[in-house]
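Subject: Sanity check before I submit

Could someone independently write out the structure tokens for this chain? I want to compare against mine line by line before I put it in a report. The sequence has 755 residues.
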Amino acid sequence: MQPKTHGLPTREQILEFIQTSDKVVGKREIAKAFGLKGQEKIALKKRLKDMAEEGLIDGKKTAYHRMGGVPKVTVLRVMDIEDGEPFAIPDSWQPDDATPPPRLRVIEGKKGKGRHPALKVGDRILARTEEAGRGWKAHVMKKLPARTDGLMGVVEIDRSGKGWLAPVDKRVRNSSPISDLGGAEEGQLVLAEPAGRSPRAGVKVVEVLGDPLAPKSFSLIAIAKHGIPHVFPDGAIAEAKRAAKLPLSEDKREDLRHLPIVAIDPADARDHDDAIWAEPDGEGGYRALVAIADVSFYVRPGGELDREARKRGNSVYFPDRVVPMLPEVLSADVCSLRQDEDRAAMACHLRISSEGKVTKWRFTRAIVRIAHNVAYEDAQAAIDAGDAPEHLQHLWSAWKLLFDARNRRDPLELELPERQVRLDDEGKIAEIAVRERLDAHRVVEDFMIAANVAAAKALESKTAPVVYRVHEPPSREKLVALKEYLATFGRSMALGQVITPGLFNRMLKDVTDESEKAQVMEAVLRTQTQAYYGPQNAGHFGLALGSYAHFTSPIRRYADLLVHRALVDAFGLEQPRPAGDLPPGSGLSDRDREDLAKVSDAISQAERRAMEAERDTIDRYVAAWLSGRVGETFDTRITGVQPFGFFATIEGLGGDGLVPISTLGDEYFGYDEAAQALVGSDSGTRYAPGDRLKLRLGEANALTGALKFELPDKEGRIEPRGERPEKRSRQGRTGQGKRGRPANIRHQGRGKQKR
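---
Independent answer below. Compare away.
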């Protein structure tokens, strides 16, 4: 086919020419076919580069063709997540020049109720590729094990002088040879990438991060490992600065600056989403206000700032830093409800009856001036001392009504201690302790729950879109497993009854033995489903609520921002159009409405990513804190049992560590699958979740966060279980826990000390 010569060809014309040509096609052939000269050739070069970036062609200058070098079935690596959709590139892409690799939209197989299995940035998949309009897509066939691509690790030099990358991810077992140190020295923390197509080519260092045990390193490791976006694009920062200059107009805003509203937060909080106020209504109840930062006024749908916030999904909190969802000019300044400063707020007005029920609610946009930013501990101390100001006393009195109503509702009550890492001024670990749970925490929590319920019900009353916070009841499979587990304790559980949170609460109250109670609590926790965001309401089982949405933290959660936008639309709370080039509306965009399920999936995945990153980082801090105490004996509690050993945590500190079955002595230990226990064949010695033991710390690896424990002797148990283990010692033994370490079970780490 001979193209017509009428100037720069369109993408479609170029693709058609490449597809129908009977000879090799390069830039020269395209220019000649379309009669291009001078500046037109320069424009063609740019268009071809753009097409390569879009994945329409493979980008080789001498022989363009559609997606060259990408087989129909190939290995891809996920590089980005946009609105819940993963995008990937060929895993071993090595172009002849600087042209970026083709980018494929990944289609995931559905899994239960329309939700998809979560893929994260960095995941490797085997996929089937196909052309889709102007781009390409890939269908997931299966997820593949992790490789060292983009891996963070520590440089080690062997005796021959060869460099090795020791991984900081405890799931990656082997070190990789380094072909190019890139100026890195032994002991330094680095980022690396593959040095060639074959894994045997090793890796090359692309960035030197420095001391792996420096205070900043633990959070950096988590950020890199989980692919958390932590650098804002210039466009998003510029838009945030423009938004921060928006005038706070009183037009269509309720003036609440006369109310003594207080924000109660952690002492080190940098962003303040919420503030509360209450006063008696003269009828035994209270009028209350929950004021939430009006983030939707500043972050408009469709802008680059909104796209970046949606991509992040939430802020991520580490002991040494925060990776915010919004640039600091908004998150820590203009949106944050600071004392004695006028701020834009979304106000939730509540009427609380003398029985603690929320009988009325309304939502407005408001101007507030926070009377006090107070720490939880300080607010509690003032209440306990009896010298708290009247507005704090009113809050506590109103909360007692809410708390009584909560107790009647009987939500799930599990004692789940939260570890807190405190750093000194130099960023070094000062203390690791369990965070104290005060009434002040419960006051704020119950006011927030009331506002979240009100937001969900208010939107339902307008048949408006809602991003629900969904916590489904336990599945029947998990309930059957719990029933079988309880039977090993001689306890019964009827599956024919309605399963409620109160059922689990009563079950735990009936257990008087503390060791057994810890085991049952662990089992109940494993029975629970994971909460998620979605546009279809399935209630919140754990809170015993029929409708629940997240409304109270829009600075740090994108789900809350979407709820705010829905309220703006449903109740006519739009503000005058802003000046300048910011997107005009602050309600839901058409894209939000059409893609609400997809966006909900994306922010649910981002939440899980943040939780894993935060947990990994705490584990590394705990391992670093314990690294100088290897050889000491600690009081521990078993948290999980597997055929190859059991995991235990130090009481009051945390940090799960493995006790391999090979260290339990010469006796044969069988795995009782129903009871989730290891049972000695001769003595009947039993290791089950919840058991308390004295264990010696054998290894603490700060880089991976891995701990390893050992029995100090064969009589390491603190609380003997009497005759009960003997009665159950023969039940369900599978023979999987053979003497010695299984060949496929290895524990990574260096500096192992045996005592």
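---
OP: Matches mine. For the report I'm noting this point. Residues 61-69, 94-99, 111-116, 715-755 have pLDDT under 50 and may be disordered.
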